[in-house]
Design goal:
Elements: E1 6-11, H1 17-29, E2 33-38, H2 42-45, H3 48-55, H4 74-80, E3 83-89, H5 91-99, H6 105-112, E4 116-121, H7 125-129, H8 131-142, E5 146-147, E6 151-154, E7 160-164, H9 168-181, E8 189-194, E9 199-202, E10 205-207, H10 214-225, E11 229-234, E12 246-250, H11 254-264, E13 270-273, E14 280-282, E15 302-304, H12 308-315, E16 321-328, H13 332-342, E17 347-352, E18 364-365, E19 367-371, E20 376-378, E21 382-383, H14 384-395
Parallel strand pairs: 1-2, 1-3, 3-4, 4-5, 8-11, 8-13, 11-12, 13-16, 16-17
Antiparallel strand pairs: 6-7, 9-10, 14-15, 17-19, 18-21, 19-20
Helix pairs in contact: 1-3, 1-9, 4-6, 5-8, 10-14
Bound molecules: cytidine-5'-triphosphate.
Length: about 400
């Protein structure tokens, strides 16, 4: 199953680096193509010659090859890899990754990687328990990094506790699991709407909402990583898609989003409506900036926008799956259930603004899914990347 998979291994400076030699051997034996990038400290724990011999590829550590001045491109490495596994991942390197620091080739590649990054932490128990390390782990989990958790046991310091790197066999299994589980959407085309819409009042003003697009983009990344081809129809947001299986269609108004959905939905197997679409738009957009008139009230006449989810619900064929969101502040379950049937959705994902850590701008979300047969599934507060996996898992059985 790993045959032909391109796996980039990152080794940072920890005693567990010696175990990574076994991991590389297991991967090569399974038919994977392995390249290794090491930090300067890692070279004190395991010889680059051992690593190069086992991986059958030259080891990369510097931005330039000191012998011939050849440039080791982190961008090329980041595009080459199907998965980037950093084992061991020290507290120091994880802290740097969490901050976006890129002061060596291994870390720079983290920023340029288009694939998922898997981390196998290894450190002493006190370093592991330290709130700063735990905070960094949480930041990375929220960003969708995959963790092969550190284990309890005897540590290099002689102390005993949590911090040992997982055994190479376990990391290998996690890599295999990643490739089997995560390719279940191959051959599927999925439309996702995300972000807010902007409804223009005049050339300098618009009506919009607080949506940041984080949830929709997390769903797009998750499904693309699981093999789907994605059409991401997005309103104006600050973030950008990473996976190159995501085709971004940028729109501004609800009408533009509707037009793009109408064009793309017939070719798609699934549509997920996560955008916070404005329900109303100014009846007319003033061609010039509207001037202030302090003596009079300003009355803005608004007209309804197309309800994109409802319209897609009308177009939906037997073979297509349609999923919507409901953002509520009161009567949550009732409102969500009504939207589910009114918009002809297969299921609806309810967000309540009453839940702490859920809603616009957060990296976490707490959802409840309401199905057509009225069953309800409640989830814990999780990172948006984890929520996206849960949503993908619920869509998968509905694919025809
Ligand atoms: N939606 C849409 N087009 C709209 C409005 C909403 O596609 N013009 C979609 C959203 O993307 C979401 C679902 O419909 O998947 C529910 O959106 P929500 O804003 O919760 O509900 P509304 O239908 O707008 O109803 P209300 O604002 O009254 O709660």
């Amino acid at each position: 199953m790993l045959n032909g998979k391109k796996i980039l291994i990152g080794i940072t400076g920890g005693i567990a680096a010696y175990k990574t030699a076994t991991l590389i051997r297991l991967l090569v034996k399974a038919g994977a193509e392995v390249k290794v990038v090491m930090s300067a400290t890692a070279k004190q724990f395991i010889s680059p010659l051992t690593v190069a011999t086992l991986s059958k590829n030259p080891v990369l550590a510097d931005f330039f090859n000191p012998e011939n001045g050849e440039w080791n491109s982190h961008v090329k490495l980041g595009i080459w890899a199907d998965l980037y596994v950093i084992a061991p991942a020290t507290a120091n390197s994880m802290a740097k990754i969490a901050c976006g620091i890129a002061d060596n080739l291994l870390l720079t590649t983290c920023l340029s990687a288009r694939c998922k990054i898997m981390l196998a932490p290894a450190m002493d128990l006190d370093m592991f328990q330290n709130p700063m390390t735990q905070r960094n782990i949480q930041i990375l989990k929220n960003q969708g990094f995959i963790f092969v958790d550190a284990k309890e046991g005897e540590l290099a310091s002689g102390l005993s506790g949590k911090g040992r790197m997982a055994e190479p066999e376990e990391i290998f299994e996690s890599i295999e699991k990643y490739f089997t589980e995560t390719q279940d959407f191959v051959g599927k085309k999925i439309l996702i709407t995300a972000g807010p819409t902007r409804e223009k009042i005049d050339p300098v003003r618009f009506i919009s909402n607080y949506s940041t697009g984080k949830m929709g983009y997390a769903i797009a990344e998750t499904l693309a990583n699981r093999g789907a081809e994605i059409i991401l129809i997005s309103g104006p947001v600050e973030i950008k898609p990473i996976n190159n299986k995501i085709q971004l269609v940028s729109v501004e108004s609800a009408q533009e989003m509707y037009n793009a959905c109408k064009t793309h939905f017939p070719q798609c197997d699934v549509a997920i409506m996560s955008a916070a679409v404005a329900d109303y738009t100014p009846e007319t957009t003033a061609p010039e900036k509207i001037k202030k008139d302090s003596d009079n009230q300003m009355i803005l006449k608004l007209v309804p926008t197309p309800d994109i989810a409802s319209e897609m619900g009308k177009l939906k064929t037997e073979k297509q799956v349609l999923v919507g969101f409901a953002l509520e502040t009161e009567n949550e379950l009732n409102n969500a259930t009504n939207k589910l049937s009114k918009k002809n959705l297969d299921f609806i994902i309810l967000n309540s603004l009453k839940d702490k850590g859920a809603g616009f701008g957060y990296d976490t979300n707490k959802i409840t899914i309401v199905y057509r047969d009225s069953t309800i599934e409640k989830f814990e507060l999780k990172s948006k990347a984890e929520v996206a996996q849960d949503i993908a898992d619920r869509i998968y059985p509905l694919l025809k």
